[in-house]
Amino acid sequence: MKLTKIKDDNLNDQKIDAIVYSDISDNQKNSEYALVFGNQMLWKQRVNKAYEAYQNGRIKKMVFTGGINGVSNQDNSLLSEASKMKALALSLGVKEQDILIEDASNNTFENIENAMKLLPNDIKHISIITSEFHLKRCYAILKKNYPNILVTLLSSKDGFSDKENWFLSDNSWNSGRSLATYEAHLLIKYAKENKIYDLEINEYDKLN
């Protein structure tokens, strides 16, 4: 079922799981560049995943993206997400020439729009690194705006918002359940507003 066909007023755990977490597997392809998405709460896990991919030859260069005014900045940090991520990556051993930063954006749409300006115009393949609950939104934005670019999905685990554990928490702020639930509604909303690619949610059909 397409995202635009899903009603968002009766989403149970199975439906949320299908919308957010289905079809986000790694295609095992390597790319030169990876976009690493900022989040004031989860940036360390995402950098660690980028470093792992870098060490294993999955990526050669990384673009850290994120400003200071994103919704996750509950502590009003004056350091941009991108600058924090770069500092950690350098401390882990990533070469400075292999890091690009984009620190003006404050949401995923801006992350992608601004980061893509830093990459070669003829780029054919890119990896994206972010938390599992966030992968599909990033992919759907890229697929709508850059339909000819192959995208590899690399997920960072955090132990509470992953496919295997998001439903174990209550719905308090920034819990795994709240993040997944919010993301499911957002994917439906953005698809209906034609802001993202209208993805087919194959797992959803099995629930009806």
Provide a brief overview of the structure.
With 208 residues, this protein is α/β, with parallel strands linked by helices. The chain has helices at residues 13-21, 43-55, 81-92, 108-116, 132-145, 176-192, 202-205, and strands at residues 33-37, 61-65, 99-102, 125-131, 150-156. Helix 2 links the parallel strand 1 (33-37) and strand 2.
What's the arrangement of secondary structure elements?
Layout: H1 13-21, E1 33-37, H2 43-55, E2 61-65, H3 81-92, E3 99-102, H4 108-116, E4 125-131, H5 132-145, E5 150-156, H6 176-192, H7 202-205
Parallel strand pairs: 1-2, 1-4, 2-3, 4-5
Number of helices: 7
Secondary structure tally: strands: 5
Helical residue percent band: 25-40%
Shape: globular
> Could you spell the SSE succession in H and E letters?
HEHEHEHEHEHH
The biggest sheet amounts to: 5 strands, parallel
Judged by helices, strands and strand pairing, the structural class is: alpha/beta
Query: How far is it from the N-terminal to the C-terminal residue, by CA?
Result: 10 Å
Give the uncertain stretches in residue-range form.
70-74
Strand order of the largest sheet: 3-2-1-4-5
Descriptive notes:
The chain has seven helices and five strands. β4, α5 and β5 (150-156) form a beta-alpha-beta unit. 38% of the residues lie in helices and 13% in strands. With 208 residues, it is α/β, with parallel strands linked by helices. It has a five-stranded parallel sheet, with helices on both faces.
